[in-house]
Amino acid sequence: MLLRLWNGMARRLDRPGCSLISRPFVAPADAAALLLTHHDLDEKGVRSLDVEPTDSEHGRGQECVVVEDSRKGLLPAKAAGMYCIVTTNGYTENEDFTQAEAVFTELPHEPNVKVTPEDLKRIAPQSDLALLTMVRPLGLRRRTTMAYAPSTLITLVGVPLFALAVQTALAATEDLGNGFLHHGVATPISNHRGTVATVDGEGRNVVLLWLMDHRGGYALLMIDAETGRAEQYPMPFQPGDSPFASILSSRNKFYTHFNSYFVEFDPEKRAFTFSQKTAPRCAMGMTEDDDGVIWAATYPNSGIVSFDPATRECKDYGYVHQENWRQYQRSVAADDAGWIYFGVGNTASHIIAFDPRTGKAKPMIPEDERAKGRGDVYRDMNGKVYGQPAPGAEDSWYEFYRGEGKKIGKHERIQKKPIITSSQGLFHREFPDGKRLKTCDLVNRVLVVEDPKTAQVKELHFEYTSEGAHIMGLAAAPGGTICGGTAFPMRFFSYNPETDEWINRTAYGQWNTVVRQGDRFFVGGYGGGFLLEWDPSREWVPTEREKEGCNPLFHTQCRPAINRPHDLLAHPDGKTLVLAGTPGYGYTGGGLLFWDRETRSETLVEHTDILPEHSTMSLVALPGGKLLGGSTTSPGTGGEKKATEAQLYIMDMATKRLEWHEVVFPGVQSYTDMCLGPDGLVYGVADRKRFFVFDPAQRKVIHEEDTEAKFGSTNSQQGPRAHGCLCSARASESTCCS
Questions:
Q1: For residue 61, which phi and psi values (nearest 5 degrees)?
Q2: Average pLDDT for residues 625-636, to the nearest whole number?
Q3: What is the CATH number of domain 470-737?
Q4: How far apart are CA 246 and CA 263, in angstroms?
Q5: Is 119 left (phi over 0), alpha (psi -120 to 50) or beta?
Q6: Domain ranges within the chain, ordered by starting residue
Q7: CB atoms < 10 A from the CB of 568, how many?
């Protein structure tokens, strides 16, 4: 009997008409973890297809061949009594596969077939043969068991699923009813938000890391650095936001503070041992004082929180320093007298001293020395704290002690006190026994540990669950595919509706907004406000800035005028692209970038020549060479908001001059999105809840209504937010539906 399970149906392939014979077996979402130690999933999957594994007691032969790519997959298959062939990849090629019936480097597509049905018959000589492969395909929310006839395996199974350069998988689209199809998860991968090498309660080397997907920070992952066994611990509160700072304390506890909760994880107890709600929102910097107390300085209003591990007391001091812009506190330090200092950015850098005894804070930098950027502090081994109002100037150092500061100019003898803390990029590599964490790869689920003493390197595989990365930009691309980018991790994805296939690759930066023009696909990305051009007909060559021959090709970037793109307009003239967005960190007012494809030249128009102190959020090309823009009052990240109401404006494309602008809706802060209808009218949304129809000929709104009560607010996203083409994805989800 030859079986094939595909698109939700198990079919016999040895009969005319491929009649339906069995329900599909679909394993639960946590099947990946179960399969590593148990073989009941393999058995259940096989029996649901009405075939049998080995039953030596009754003399029956094996009817199934399991296809796996690692020893972790081989062992449960053999434990279930099945034949197993292995297709190796770069991470598993040196593993022990002596129990496998056969090992191949690949099962490529025709015409380069290296494994034939006859080869498989020699592996499993019984006449009734099914091929069962336990796969984790990109695009699936769940683990699905698939069985194939041997003749179809050669064309359907290609390179290993988790290859470093590119990942390709069949999506197995699911019919949700009412005309909706679920195509799968664009990037079924999470991002780390702080990783540390340490030990558990038995002294075993373990790796701890905060996991983030489209929901925000949702769990802590603990990986055994000797075996690769992974345990996932959900956050003790609802996911949302994500860690921007964390610290591994001298007592071997892992702390973070986000989503308005301060938490402690104890690797010795393998559990969260403390959690407390605080004033909003999240720590941007953390430190430990000489008494072992953990301190956090929080975004956006410089809140201070402390936790004493000895007394278990958590103090929320509230907001201690006010500005009229959102503050970033990327460094925190404590002197040996108990004073806390933190640097502030971005509109005007600062350093603040905080006295825990009084709960009062005081600024330490004169106003004339504050500059755009971020103040920085560190704790020295001499017990004092040193800092710079704006890093870079060698003669700008200050010395701080007991709440007082003095300018010392140059500071050459820097001896930082060892404290394992940093931003969301924290990656502490050193284990206590001297071994070193070389790689912790969430994309390929690979952990690499090296021993400097012996020069030995151990490569391990681990598993974790994820709902997928956050979708940023999404658009129809040449060739009939749906393409875009995800954030954290920064990945490119492509879905082909005809073949039901996903492709997923590493992307250059964060693809905020994407658009098609002719036979090309363009990207407006963060950070730096860059512009890329991708030709889908050519081979993909990873992007490098200012390097010809890449595909996607890097054209330009326009920071600080645009740092975080919000719209990318492909003009109907077929040659012009217009990029809009908010400016760099600490800046107010974003410009417009005009890119001419024919001349490969750019024109950058500053906000002062459009609407001063505004940025453009949405764009529409109007007939007659005109451009309709909708502004936002939002500044760049950490910038000062100066505009009070968003406006609509009309610009002449040739002169780059405004012909009209107006506060159409009093009090509105942003024109979320707009599109041009076939009737010449512009349909838009303001502040994510106010639907309107604008007549550009009359320059007036002819219809408006509040849609929030009936439909809720529209998507909140950095790229186009309300109007999609062919396919749409909710900003709060990571799946693709049509």
A1: -85, 175
A2: 97
A3: 2.130.10.10
A4: 10
A5: alpha
A6: 3-161, 190-268+424-467, 470-737
A7: 28
